Amino acid sequence: MAVTDEAIEKIKGMIVSGALRPGDRLPKESELAAELGLSRNSLREAVRALSLIRILDVRQGDGTYVTSLDPQLLLEALSFVVDFHRDDTVLEFLAVRRILEPAATAMAASRIKDSELDALGEQLDALGEDPSVEELVASDLEFHRGIVQASGNSVLCSLLDGLSGPTTRARVWRGLTQEDAVSRTLHEHRAILAALRDRDAEAARSWATVHVASVEQWLRSTL
Questions:
Q1: What is the pairing mode between strands 56-59 and 63-66?
Q2: pLDDT digits 0-9 by tens, 69-115
Q3: DSSP string covering 122-174
Q4: Max Cα separation, the chain?
Q5: What is the CA radius of gyration of the chain?
Q6: Element spanning 110, H or E
Q7: What is the pTM of this model?
């Protein structure tokens, strides 16, 4: 494993230094192994590991390439790892979401387009006043994803997308067990949207904080 780690670090060093750039094809295995002073086996293991986390793209019969290194692509690995969370860590995921999502919502206040605001409004209108819990949670995910995308920060968007999975079940369970959860969620969504329409970053941040914190507080009370 130590030899493979060394191989990973050497390939990483080539990418970080600019010797290999996004989209570049790696030299042939024998040439690269000799250049880096590695065995072909350790190089092969390193390439396999880096392809799993979307740093490299192994194309059968064509060669191995550096990916685009786009944040959304690289952070797919985070989403994969997050899926293995334990139930007792859901509160921790919610706490991280409470820190990041209000910041993204505040950023979106000055950047979101009128057409995007209209689309969010239509989405809320389409839900009606009495959606099912499943419909509400699905809409909740899309509502917040649309706002975070409007923040213009692709890293923040990818992080929050990856973190949304562990909290989905908690939101569904809250909707099924807390009497006013549906109406409260709809009210908070409309308040967030109103703040965004007013281009009021601090109000948007505050309502987003209230929104995430309400799920967090409910979950704490049930544990």
A1: antiparallel
A2: 887 777 776 666 666 655 567 788 888 889 999 999 999 999 999 99
A3: HHHHHH-SS--HHHHHHHHHHHHHHHHHHTT-HHHHHHHHHHHHHHHHHHHHH
A4: 66
A5: 22
A6: none
A7: 0.70
